[in-house]
Write a structure and sequence with these properties.
The chain has 121 residues and is mainly α. The chain has helices spanning 10-24, 48-57, 59-83, 89-94, 96-110. The chain has a domain at 10-85. The longest helix has 25 residues, at 59-83.
């Protein structure tokens, strides 16, 4: 996960800056110095274009934060869900309620006209 130099791959570096800016923009906090944890870009009031300019200007620092956050998110969110056993009863019950609501909704749609009244057979 090395960052290309400006001379080596300028187009790739711009794409990485966009990726890093997009990934870090919605985060609630960023990595700071030892005693600080600065708020994220949205909390600081940056729109995305301003944030992209900031990330592009200091890509080395933000790229390091990007790698750290990807690893943190992977360990926290992605890995647990990928290991979740899809054949277990827990998984089957996880979506059961949503499926029942969807089935009930689609069944009622069949017997309701577009103006909200009941259809007559």
């Amino acid at each position: 996960m090395s960052l290309p130099t400006e001379a080596g791959d300028p187009a790739g570096r711009v794409l990485l800056a966009k990726l890093v800016a997009c990934y870090l923009y919605p985060k609630e906090f960023l990595e700071g110095e030892a005693s600080t944890t600065p708020e994220g870009a949205i909390a600081q009031g940056y729109d995305f274009d301003e944030w992209f300019a900031i990330v592009s200007a200091d890509l080395e620092s933000y790229y390091g934060q990007f790698v750290t956050r990807v690893l943190m998110d992977h360990a926290e969110l992605i890995s647990p869900y990928s290991r979740f056993p899809k054949t277990s009863r827990i998984f089957a019950n996880f979506f059961k309620r949503m499926q029942k609501q969807r089935a009930r909704h689609s069944w009622s749609q069949r017997f309701t006209s577009s103006n909200g009244g009941r259809r007559r057979w």
